[in-house]
Amino acid sequence: MGLLDVFSSIRDRAEKFLNEKNVVTDFLGKLEEKTGIKKKIIAAGAVSVTGLYLVYGYGASLLCNLIGFVYPAYYSIKAIESASKEDDTKWLTYWVVYGVFSLGEFFSDIFLYWFPFYYAFKCLFLLWCMAPMSWNGSQIIYNKVVRPVFLRHEATVDNMVNDLSGKAMSAAENLTREVLSTLVKNKSLVNPLVSVAQSEPKSLPSSSTETSAAKISPSQPSEERPSFR
């Protein structure tokens, strides 16, 4: 009964999504008009092709991350715009679990990359975390793993964050003070040089009289010799 309830909930959610007015349903509606195939069959075929691509296709990592991001992001925006706060808590829980999973995946990706059908299982895990049921993956992982660890180390983390923020603020203040003092010193060094350059007299070119006086004067005419007759 548990699996039947899960499949029934997923089917109802899918039908509700296909009956809504959004970009995906508009695109599926146009395909239905052109091909004559119902939207449900087109959606089921797209899901099957996506699953096969995750197993055998190139770039499965990007497709898996898009599946784990686009649908939750869309419904997170709708939750923000709605008046109810229950859906806000639901999708906040999902993003916390998604962040913890992404952090763990970052450090273990070099080993998980060689795991057969890893991205297909990752996609199923993300779908389980966002599944529209009371015991979806994000609720279970948050209540069983994330929340107990957080409550156990909350005070330590708060103190660490406060210390880091205080050190960051003091470092920023010291850096700003040093930069300002350096600018003031450079300005005080530049101003005297400018004043000295402005006070120096300009050298005037020598006059024509001084130039002519510096020239050598012409020689005196020689005396006439007496003639002997």
Automatic annotation (TrEMBL):
Name of the featured protein: Receptor expression-enhancing protein
Keyword terms, alphabetized: Cytoplasmic vesicle, Endoplasmic reticulum, Membrane, Transmembrane, Transmembrane helix
Species of provenance: Seriola lalandi dorsalis
Keyword flag Ion transport: no
Biased composition (Polar residues): 197-221
Domain of life, source organism: Eukaryota
Subcellular location: Cytoplasmic vesicle, Clathrin-coated vesicle membrane; Endoplasmic reticulum membrane; Membrane
TM region positions: 41-71, 92-111
